[in-house]
Structures are given as C-alpha cells and as structure tokens.
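Aim 2 progress update. The chain analyzed this quarter is reproduced below.
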Amino acid sequence: MNETTTKETSKGRILTGRVVSDKMNKTVTVVIERTVKHPLYGKVINRSKKYHAHDENNDYHPGDLVVIEECRPLAKTKTWRVTKLIEKARLI
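Predicted structure tokens:
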C-alpha cells in the first residue's frame, strides 16, 4: 500500500510550439500555432498565441521546437513550464 512517485505528473494541458524569444532570465516565449476554419466562409485560418514558459537552466533558444505543460503560476504571466526539446534550431 506504500507507493512513492518519483516523477511529477502533469495536471494541465500539454502544448507543442516554437521558442521565439529567450531574452528574459529563466523564461522563454513560445508561440503555439493552430488552424481553425472560419465559421461562415469556410476558409482555413492560422491562429497563434504566445506563452511565457519557465526554463530553469536557460537551455532553450529561438527556433527550438519544445513541449510545454501547464503548471502553477510562477509569475504574473508565467504559468507554463518547458518539459522537453523536440528539435534544435537549424542555422541557415
């Protein structure tokens, strides 16, 4: 009956997006893009939203594809945490 958990479970949403800014200390700005269909005209439109996410070791840089998960409020506008890196930014 005695069970210990070693990994913190996610209680919120999980999103995938691209880092667009890392100018803040321990914080990155991640843009999440989604496609929606216009209700009247039927045209597919791209919508995007920016989230501030916690980056404890300043590991992520603009262009990186990351997974973020919802967490408790860490600051006024920061309620997301970066959990893993999917793809590193490519230099052109």
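The chain has one domain: 14-87. Residues 6 and 83 are 16 Å apart (CA to CA). These observations will guide the mutagenesis experiments scheduled for the next reporting period.
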